[in-house]
Amino acid sequence: MSEGVIAELAGFVAELSYRDIPEAIAVKAKHHSLDTLGAALAGAVSQEAIRTRTMLAAAGHAGTAPLWGTGESLAPREAALVNGIAAHAFELDDTGGCDHSGAVVLPALLAVLPLAGRAVTGKEFLTAVVAGYDVGRRVMEGFGGYVAHNSVGWHSTGTCGAFAAAAACASLLRLSPAQTADCLGIAVSLASGTWNFIHDGAMTKRLHAGRAAEGGLTAALLAREGFSGPRRGFDDVWGGFFATYAGGRETKVERVTQNLGRDWMLRHAAIKPYASCRDTHAAVDAIGRLIEREGLAAGDVAKVRARLNTFLNGMVGGSDVSTMPAAQMSLPYAVAARICFGSARLSAYGEECRNAPELQALLGNVSILRDETVTASWASSLIVETVDGRRFEEPTSTPLGAPDNPVSLAQLREKFDGLAALTLPREQADRLAETMLGLERLDDVAALPKLLAA
After folding, report:
1. N or C, which end of the chain is more exposed by having fewer CB within 10 Å?
2. Which of 224, 174, 213 minimizes the C-alpha distance to 190?
3. Span 357-382, mean pLDDT?
4. What would the DSSP string read from start to end of 361-385?
5. What is the dihedral of CA 281, 43, 435, 95, to 10 degrees?
6. 293 burial class (0-12, 13-18, 19+ CB within 10 angstroms)?
């Protein structure tokens, strides 16, 4: 079933050009690129990014690739690692790709850009973005989709993200079909990351995006130098990627190349308005609708129960808010924050908000109702009881930022402006946004890395 999958993917990536890409997909690529850069500029002040920069500096690493939102620089591979960690650090990067495609594709591309050996046009850059998103999501689909792969315990941003970054870099470097096949084969050995962080809010979730960006870039550079990768990496053989990582479960490898070049995987990607796991967003929107419709104040809410299946409960059902990463994976916290603070944006996840007495009191009254009939976080409901005895059941629905419920360009700019302001002067952030939104008109994108340096 999977014979020739790597070769077919490699041919697609190597031959893809901007004229092949539908206009709507090209526009979406610009929006997701801008969104990712905003998330990464804010993430530059995260503890994860700071500690990684400190580690690399202590180890004597140096280079000229900018670390976004700072005045520091490193070699390209290390810059991809740091900027990928920063992009994912605050849970504000996009989702619905590999899962977090932006945080692996953009750091890898901008790090490898000076190594292209030529002027790279905006159209070429966008083509590489689309290639990365497409391959990363397609590899995940080879397992049967997000739930099928992640429920085994793998974190798809780390495992499938390595292929997204590899494909994007191969496209930008203009690797031949044979070199691109080597690149994707090498990425099989660089795919990693599990959900073990979920049990104590460890920082390693952010590491997965950085390592995938670094790994994909490494695979592309090795392939360019003639380093060979296994051509049967996706085959049903001992040591094959799908055969090994599926844990004995059925795979859907035929989906990897299904409608290749006709069905663009970027269409699945969503932009996140809230600083938390995407599977909390539908509940945040639902409680917001109820509060606004019924005119409820924070003090009116007595109890909230959220219906979740076992998989979702394991992912976002916890109430540990001792660290920011833990709180960002908590649906009860997201709901409580929306009630108490009127928002689940980044400011609501700071230590002061997490420890606020009113938040802690309400958090104890937000619980999970296990329900295996729930098929998705946006196909569930919240059951809310008020202090005066009223009871409401508010259904969840497609959350804001999804492809069929998109944020507007104005909302995207508002999000970007707020995040970029954490590390860049307003004038520089404006130039960066205008550059990204007009990317297809640029004959050379070499100035982009400088616009990201503080």
Report:
1. N
2. 213
3. 97
4. HHHTTEEEEE-TT--STTS-EEEEE
5. -30
6. exposed
pTM: 0.95
The H or E element that residue 133 is part of is helix 122-141
pLDDT band at 344 (very low <50, low <70, confident <90, very high): very high
Q: How many domains does the chain have?
A: 2
Partners of residue 154 on adjacent β-strands: 194
Residue with token string 């996009």: 94
Q: Are 70 and 86 in contact (CB under 8 A)?
A: no
State the first-to-last Cα distance of the chain, in angstroms, to the nearest integer: 49
C-alpha distance from residue 60 to each of 76, 84, 303, 386 (Å): 15, 20, 53, 58
Does 46 map to a domain? yes
Answer yes or no: are the C-beta atoms of 384 and 391 closer than 8 Å: yes
Q: Please report whether residue 406 resides in a domain.
A: no
Whether residues 120 and 210 share a domain: the answer is yes
Please give the residue range of the domain that contains residue 77.
Answer: 5-273+414-451
**What are 146-167's pLDDT values in tens digits?**
999 999 999 999 999 999 999 9
